[in-house]
Design a protein that fits this description.
- The chain is about 40% helix and about 10% strand.
- It has 16 helices and 16 strands.
- Strands 8-7-6-5-9-10-16-13 form an eight-stranded mixed beta sheet, sandwiched between helices. Strands 1-2 form a two-stranded antiparallel ribbon. Strands 3-4 form a two-stranded antiparallel ribbon.
Length: about 575
């Protein structure tokens, strides 16, 4: 009798079969994975061979490019020598026809204690080439303020921009032209209170017409300077009447701190040297500096550094590096310390051995092109340990440029607390303008409350590009103003090189966060109330400094650049 396998025997057989199948499966998987690894290894080896070949090709191309560039440089150098020889020959032939060179300008006596180098004599501008064509760009000119449309364009409700695009007059209506309003305004009180005269302002319009950058297809700039259109609702906002203008011109500002400021004659002497540097477009790091300092502010920065010759220069807010370059030209021996939370805009770097940068953002690592520069993580002015500058040098031999759009009254207190005495402020906005509280706004005892439809018992103080704004009682504003007057030895606003009233609207005149465009007559009153008489006032001065080569847009963006010295 056959015996049937027991239950345990069947279980053992099943388990043995299962184990065998599992081992076969694992073996097959192993073989598959090994085959894949071998295949990928071969692919990787082929890729490595390809990369080595590409590196060899790159090296050959770089070598050929270097050889070509060296040859081109040699050819260019030879061509330049030939041009120089030809120019010298022409100059020799023309020398008997030239006018005698002007006498050197005598060295001015500085008002401050430091001793600047002697001024260079003015250069001739008659033979100076115009600025490069590519900088005659009108993209940032407020065209809606500069009317030059024809009757047909008026009928269609718009005008043709310089770029050929048609723009509609959606929010604008016709007004009396600027020359018409200017001719009818009585300047007796204006001249007595401010120094502005009617002929002076009329002459400014005539001089601006002679500047470079007139687009041929648009005809004469005289039409643009008419300003015949304004915002439809302008009269609901900050239109200044003669009565308000009289109060504005009589209000208390910081004029009491201007007793030892540079005279206009001294400014013109320095301007003769500066304009030669500024119009040497081939030597400047930038042909144009949008969203940064233009002609007047550039002159102001250069002038104060050139005149004072500080041992240390501190710049809070670098932007592209235009002012860094200007100040280095004015004071070659100064040690410069620059601070900016965003390095990405910087296009010009000061490569002096002792120059120090504090730059952000925090996770940024300078690339190889910046090797050798002393670049440290960004710190705000208040967070830097300034002990490496002696107390004596902080007080007397250091000049600060504050261009960081913070509350300037707070900055003054921070500067003084750290022992510094002299500082320039770039964004010194008019009242109701700008994105930071300025010293000019602090100096105004009324804080702009004289304007129609304005708060009379509180003051808006902006900071950090208008992202940190607070309202303060007018009484607190007046207390802060009195404190500023007590701790400040001098306050000087650089006058505009050239001026005409619509320039005051380049940010648009702000009232309750709305943009406003007052009438032309109101702009004349605003000019007289808030702007210093211009630096260049006559045709002779305009010609002497070769202002005809200056693009018109260099006169936009004037913000009352100021220098203060604390007690």
């Amino acid at each position: 009798m056959n015996r049937r396998p027991s239950i345990s025997g069947w279980t053992a057989r099943v388990l043995m079969v299962a184990v065998g199948l599992f081992m076969v499966t694992q073996f097959i998987t192993y073989v598959s994975m090994k085959t894949a690894v071998d295949r990928h290894g071969a692919t990787i080896r082929r890729m490595e061979d390809t990369l080595r070949n590409l590196e060899a090709v790159k090296e050959r191309h770089l070598s050929a490019l270097h050889s070509g560039l060296m040859g081109a440089a040699s050819d260019a150098s030879q061509a330049l020598r030939q041009v120089a020889q030809a120019t010298a020959s022409v100059d020799k032939k023309l020398k008997p026809l030239q006018h005698p060179a002007p006498n050197p300008i005598p060295q001015p006596t500085p008002q401050l204690k430091l001793h600047p180098p002697p001024l260079k004599p003015p250069s001739k501008f008659s033979d100076r080439p115009p600025p490069p064509a590519d900088i005659l760009d009108f993209g940032d000119v407020p065209w809606h303020l500069l009317s030059n449309q024809t009757e047909s364009q008026q009928v269609t409700g718009g005008y043709v921009r310089p770029d050929g695009q048609f723009a509609r007059w959606t929010w604008y209506r016709r007004c009396r032209s600027l020359p018409e309003d200017l001719a009818d305004i009585d300047f007796t009180e204006i001249t007595r209170l401010t120094g502005w005269t009617k002929p002076m302002l009329q002459q400014q319009l005539k001089l601006l017409l002679q500047c470079n950058g007139m687009p041929e297809q648009k005809g004469s700039w005289i039409q643009k300077l008419m300003r015949e259109f304004i915002h439809k609702s302008h009269n609901l906002k900050a239109d200044v009447t003669p009565g308000v203008a009289s109060q504005l011109m009589s209000r208390e500002t910081c004029s009491a701190l201007s007793v030892s400021n540079p005279e206009r004659e001294e400014l013109l002497e320095y301007f003769a040297e500066f304009i030669k540097l500024y119009t040497d477009f081939g030597a400047r790091p930038f042909d144009f500096n949008p969203l940064g300092q233009r002609l007047t502010h550039s002159f102001a920065t250069w002038f104060h550094v050139r005149r004072m010759q500080p041992k240390y220069i501190i710049e809070s807010g670098v932007h592209k590096g235009h002012t860094t370059w200007l100040m280095r030209q004015a004071a070659p021996q100064a040690r410069m310390i620059m601070m900016d939370p965003d390095h990405t805009q910087i296009a010009h770097w000061d490569r002096n051995a002792d120059t120090l940068y504090f730059l952000g953002p925090p996770d940024w690592t300078p690339n190889a092109s910046l090797a050798g520069l002393d670049i440290r993580p960004w710190r705000d002015f208040t967070e830097v340990d300034w002990s490496f500058i002696s107390d004596e040098d902080r007080a007397h031999n250091t000049l600060l440029l504050i261009d960081d759009h913070q509350d300037e009254w707070d900055r003054v207190k921070e500067i003084r607390a750290r022992g510094f005495k002299k500082a320039m402020f770039d964004d010194n906005w008019f009242v109701h303008q700008g994105d930071n509280f300025s010293l000019k706004q602090l100096c105004d005892q009324t804080a702009g409350s004289l304007f129609p439809n304005q708060a009379t018992e509180k003051v808006l103080r902006m900071a950090n590009f208008s992202m940190s704004n607070k309202w303060f009682p007018l009484s607190k504003h007046q207390e802060d103003r009195a404190e500023f007057m007590a701790l400040t030895r001098s306050y000087f606003e650089m006058p505009p090189v050239l001026w005409y009233p619509p320039l005051i609207l380049y940010t648009q005149f702000r009232t309750h966060h709305y943009k406003d465009e007052p009438s032309n007559a109101a702009l004349v009153y605003l000019t007289a109330s808030m702007v210093q008489p211009p630096l260049i006032q006559t045709q002779e001065e305009f010609d002497r400094f070769g202002m005809h080569v200056m693009p018109l847009r260099e006169f936009w963006y004037y913000m009352n650049h100021c220098l203060i010295e604390l007690r």
